[in-house]
Write a structure and sequence with these properties.
The chain is built from 7 helices and 9 strands; from the N terminus they run αβββαβαββαβαβαβα. It is an alpha/beta fold and 209 residues long. Bound molecules: S-adenosylmethionine, the ligand Nc1nc2[nH]cc(C(=O)O)c2c(=O)[nH]1, iron/sulfur cluster and magnesium ion (MG). Magnesium ion (MG) binds at residues 51-52. Belongs to the radical SAM superfamily. 7-carboxy-7-deazaguanine synthase family.
Length: 209
């Protein structure tokens, strides 16, 4: 990457943009509602079941002016979900400033593995065992979305729930490839532990992005 471009990426004036699309939020608290998604490339958390591995290598995604990303998003929706990749790989300050200054609601999907930057109206924290969230994000997460891939993930979810604020909404979401096996266990778990809710990747059932 050109040095001048790298400098702009480092300060968040440009971001490696993988894709952007207007769709229905499929997961968690806001599921079922229209939102514009901005998917930023770059992630080194390394979840073996990640459903967007194409996002991991930031070099494959063109550095794009943040101001252009903002202006384009606002053409579609006042609710903008920033995801990735791991968006907190990058400084989210300018992106969220731009979005909010033009009246958008800013939502983030994050593993929380890197320091929290940006001004967010909604933070969905989806913690990963392989690279734990920073301490600072637990107190400000609006929803905790724990992925259930195997039985040990229930204990991890409880451990993570102990760290978030009291009003953080707690979700268990089945890892897509093992959903038929894990959903019955999740249903049983949520009935026994009703502070938890079930989240499904409803966009995959709806055949939308
Ligand atoms: C692709 S990640 C990108 C944002 C961020 N890196 C993160 O992990 O939160 C978006 C959401 O999809 C979830 N996810 C990724 N792969 C999944 C899969 N195979 N099954 C279910 N959820 C998955 C993540 O846990 C996260 O909540
Ligand atoms: N429709 C839709 N909803 C989503 N919620 C979180 C997603 C993500 O990949 O971060 C996602 C996604 O990729 N599509
Ligand atoms: S942190 Fe998110 S983007 Fe990164 S590998 Fe895990 S699920 Fe995929
Ligand atoms: Mg997704």
């Amino acid at each position: 990457m050109q040095e001048s471009v790298q400098k702009l990426v480092n300060i968040g004036e440009m971001l490696p943009l993988m894709e952007e699309f207007y769709t229905i939020q499929g997961e968690g608290y806001h599921k079922g509602t229209a939102a514009y998604f901005i998917r930023i490339g770059g992630c080194d958390v390394g979840c073996h079941w990640c459903d967007v591995k194409e996002s991991w290598n930031a070099d494959l995604h063109p550095p794009t002016l943040t101001e252009k990303i903002v202006d384009n998003a606002l053409k579609y929706s006042n609710v903008v979900v920033v995801t990735g990749g791991e968006p907190l790989t990058w400084d989210m300050t300018l992106l969220t400033q731009g979005l909010k200054s033009k009246g958008a609601q800013t939502h983030i999907e994050t593993s929380g593995a890197y320091p929290l930057t940006g001004d967010w109206d909604w933070i969905c924290l989806s913690p990963k065992k392989v690279k734990r969230p920073t301490k600072q994000i637990y107190g400000v997460a609006n929803e905790l979305k724990c992925i259930i891939y195997n039985k040990s993930d229930f204990a991890f979810a409880e451990e993570q729930a102990a760290k978030v604020s009291e009003d953080c909404i707690l979700y268990l979401q089945p890892e897509w490839s093992v959903r038929d096996k894990m959903i019955p266990l999740m249903v049983d778990f949520v009935m026994k532990n009703p502070k938890w809710r079930v989240s499904l990747q409803t966009h995959k059932y709806l055949n939308i992005p």
